Amino acid sequence: MQRIADSVAQVAQDAYPQYGGWTIETLSVIPRVGQMRGVAVQILDKGQTVIYDDTTNLRSIHGAVLGENFILNPTDPVVSSPVTVNNISVGTVRVWAYGEGALLTDRDAQFRSGSLTALIAAAVVAMLMASLGGFLYANRLVRPIQRITETAVALRRGDREARTMLEGNDEIAVLARTLDEMADAIEADRELERRLTADVAHELRTPLQAIQATVEAMQDGVLPADEERLGVVRDETIRLGRLADGILELTRLERGSLAFDIQRIDLSQSVRTAAEAHQALMDARELEFTVEASPGAWVLGDADRLKQAISNLLSNAARYTPPGGRVELRVSNSAKHVNVAVSDTGIGISDEDMSNVFSRFWRADAARATATGGLGIGLAVTKEIIERHKGSIIVGRRPQGGTTFTLRLPRA
After folding, report:
1. What is the pLDDT of residue 370?
2. Per-10-residue mean pLDDT, the chain, length 412
3. How many Å apart are CA 311 and CA 275, to the nearest integer?
4. Are residues 289 and 399 in the same domain?
5. pLDDT in tens, 306-329
6. How far is CA 155 from CA 141, 142, 164, 167, 174, in A?
7. Is residue 127 part of a domain?
8. Could you tell me whether strands 298-301 and 263-266 are parallel, antiparallel, or unpaired per DSSP bridges?
9. What pTM, to 2 d.p., does this model score?
């Protein structure tokens, strides 16, 4: 602004002596900087009387366009520059900026106007895109939530096959998968309950029918009530009691409600004890029975429960191996595990039955197992016992015939 004031003062200073003072001719050569550059100019004589004021012209030029509220108030401090002729001050030029476009050239004003228009357009486009993006995101967020809600309602109404089937890695997809997995687990529990109910009913029906038929025959006089017939009733009653005890034990194992006395034990001792208890059974069935159990098979476990698991495997091996066959019991150590293997030369297990070996009431030969007193829950109990010890049980077929069950427990 000071340079503008100095420029106007220099023009006035040159015209003043030429036209003999502050004449009309002198003032007529004053640059119309206010009209061209957005500044207002006043000239005062040496008595500080305003002799030139272009704000009148500015009002006539801009007021017609901008209305009566057109304001020429300074937006910056007023600057001044003296008009000196022969080292004598003959007046003063005063200049100030007004309005938002002060000191802008026409090109600058056009650029500013264009930039403002572009900014407004960009803001409108950004708002539209943000609104569209928000709508799409909200729709993407709401749809899976609605799907989860619909699936939950369907499950509550009894549709056991309802699933969200949503995929992804975000929190909603994880929630949907959790709901699906929960529904699968509930369906599996229901299927297990239905199967268990059917199996128990089937297993109870056979001894109950035998007892009922024998008692009715004795009542009707068809069969004599002698020791042999009463023995049949007694045997079936004992079998019922064993079945009930076995089911109760398995249920407690599955629920984790059966207490274990965990200690550091030499598993070879439990193996030898179980082998001695089954020697008479092996002899009665005319089976060759070999045992390899060197000391030092240390594990953390319940000695009685592990002995029970090994006994179940030995009983199965004796039950399904024909006379003249062979049963082997071996204990071995690896870097991290103690392995107990029970092998036999019995009837073996087919490919289709491999997946059912540890199921409740499964039998390799149902007719023979019933005849020999098998309940069909021994392997299921064994599996639960070993898993409670953080171990595993593996079943495989021997190349020469028969089956091998291997218990694998962590070394202590």
Report:
1. 46
2. 87 90 88 61 91 73 47 71 92 82 61 82 90 78 86 89 87 90 84 71 74 87 84 82 77 78 94 93 94 92 93 91 95 94 90 75 52 65 92 88 93 91
3. 8
4. yes
5. 999 999 999 989 988 999 999 999
6. 22, 20, 11, 19, 18
7. no
8. antiparallel
9. 0.49
Residue with tokens 């699906």: 180
Place of tokens 């709901």: 179
Q: What is the pLDDT of residue 325?
A: 94
Q: For residue 343, give its domain range.
A: 263-410
pLDDT at position 403: 92
Say what the pLDDT of residue 101 is.
Answer: 54
Q: Which residue type occupies 152?
A: A
Give the type of residue at 390: K
Distance, in Å, from the CA atom of 151 to the CA atom of 154, rounded to the nearest integer, reads 5
- 126 falls within a domain: no
Query: Which of 103, 121, 150 is a domain's end point?
Result: 103
CA dihedral over 65, 66, 69, 74, signed as positive or negative: negative
117 belongs to a structural domain: no
Query: What distance in Å separates the CA atoms of residue 70 and residue 51, rounded to the nearest whole number?
Result: 23
Tell me how crowded residue 368 is: count the other CB atoms within 10 A of its CB. Answer: 13
Instruction: Please report whether residue 70 resides in a domain.
Output: yes
Which of 237, 255, 273 is where one domain is finished? 255
